[in-house]
Design brief:
alpha/beta; Rossmann fold; globular
C-alpha cells in the first residue's frame, strides 16, 4: 500500500551519523534529519564546537549526541562508529561530510598537503562507509549513505582557482559513490552524493573574500550563493524512504553553475 508523503520523509526511529557535523553544511543537514525525526550523532575534531552545535539542535527538540574525532584517522573513524552503535544500537544513515581544502599551484603543492586533503576527503569516506556497513547496514540489510562531493569534482577549475588536491578528492568521491552503489545494492544500501556549489562556510570564506561574494553569486544562473536551507531537501530525500529507489546518483546543488557552458 502506498505511503503518504509524510510517511515517506519520516525518519523517526532512525539514527544518522554525520561527519563534519558541528558547523556549516554538516550542521544544516543534521538539522534537517533531526527535524524529520532522526536521532543524530555528530562528529568533528573540536569538542567545543560539537558541544555548541548539539545544544543548538537540542533547542529544536532533536535527540543528538556527539563524539570528538579526526575523520582522517582510521582508528578514530572506527571508534566513532563503535560509539554510535553503543549509544543508539544501529546506524541507518551515514552522511560523509567531513572535508578540507588546500590552495596552492599544482607545481608547488606539497605532498604532505595532498595527503592531508585526500585522506580526509576521499579515504575517510571509505573507512566510515565500510565500518558502518559492517556494524549495522549489512546485518540489517539496509541503509542510506550520502557522500558530500562538490561541483569541483565534476569538472576542472577557473585558472585562478588552484585547488588540485581538493578537486581530485571530490572527483574520487563522485566515482566512489557510483562504484559503492553498484556493489552494495545487493545489501539494500543506497549510496548517493550531493555536490554543492558555492555556500558561505569556513572552507570557502577565503575564496569568497578574494573574489567577492557578489561576483561568485553572479557566476550562476540563479545569481545567488547557497544558503542555510538549500541542502536540507536533498539530504532528506536521499536519507528517507522517499529516495529508496535512488542510488549511485550525484545531485549538484549549485544555483545552476554546472549547466553554464563556457565559450
Amino acid at each position: 500500500m502506498a505511503k503518504s508523503i509524510q510517511q515517506l520523509f519520516n525518519l523517526e526511529d532512525r539514527t544518522a551519523l554525520i561527519t563534519g557535523g558541528s558547523r556549516g553544511l554538516g550542521l544544516q543537514m543534521a538539522q534537517a534529519l533531526g527535524e524529520a525525526g532522526a536521532s543524530v550523532l555528530l562528529t568533528s575534531r573540536k569538542a567545543s564546537d560539537l558541544e555548541e552545535s548539539a545544544a543548538h539542535l537540542q533547542r529544536s527538540g532533536i535527540k543528538v549526541q556527539w563524539v570528538a574525532a579526526d575523520a582522517s584517522n582510521p582508528a578514530d573513524a572506527n571508534r566513532v562508529v563503535e560509539e554510535t552503535m553503543l549509544r543508539f544500537g544501529k546506524i541507518d544513515i551515514l552522511i560523509n561530510n567531513a572535508g578540507a581544502s588546500w590552495g596552492a599551484p599544482a607545481e608547488e603543492h606539497s605532498l604532505e598537503a595532498w595527503d592531508k586533503v585526500m585522506n580526509l576527503n576521499a579515504r575517510s569516506l571509505f573507512v566510515f562507509a565500510q565500518a558502518t556497513a559492517r556494524a549495522s547496514m549489512i546485518p540489517r540489510h539496509g541503509g542510506r549513505i550520502v557522500n558530500i562531493a562538490s561541483i569541483a569534482g565534476l569538472g576542472g577549475n577557473p585558472p585562478e582557482m588552484k585547488t588540485i588536491a581538493y578537486n581530485t578528492s571530490k572527483g574520487a568521491a563522485v566515482n566512489f559513490t557510483r562504484a559503492l552503489a553498484a556493489e552494495w545494492g545487493a545489501y539494500g544500501i543506497t549510496v548517493n552524493a550531493i555536490a554543492p556549489g558555492f555556500f558561505p562556510s569556513k572552507m570557502s570564506q577565503g575564496l569568497l573574500d578574494s573574489w567577492g561574494e557578489d561576483n561568485v553569486a553572479h557566476r550562476s544562473p540563479l545569481k545567488r550563493l547557497g544558503d542555510e536551507d538549500d541542502l536540507k531537501g536533498a539530504v532528506l530525500l536521499f536519507a528517507s524512504d522517499a529516495g529508496k529507489h535512488i542510488t549511485g546518483q550525484v545531485l549538484a546543488i549549485d544555483g545552476g553553475t554546472t549547466c553554464v557552458v563556457a565559450g
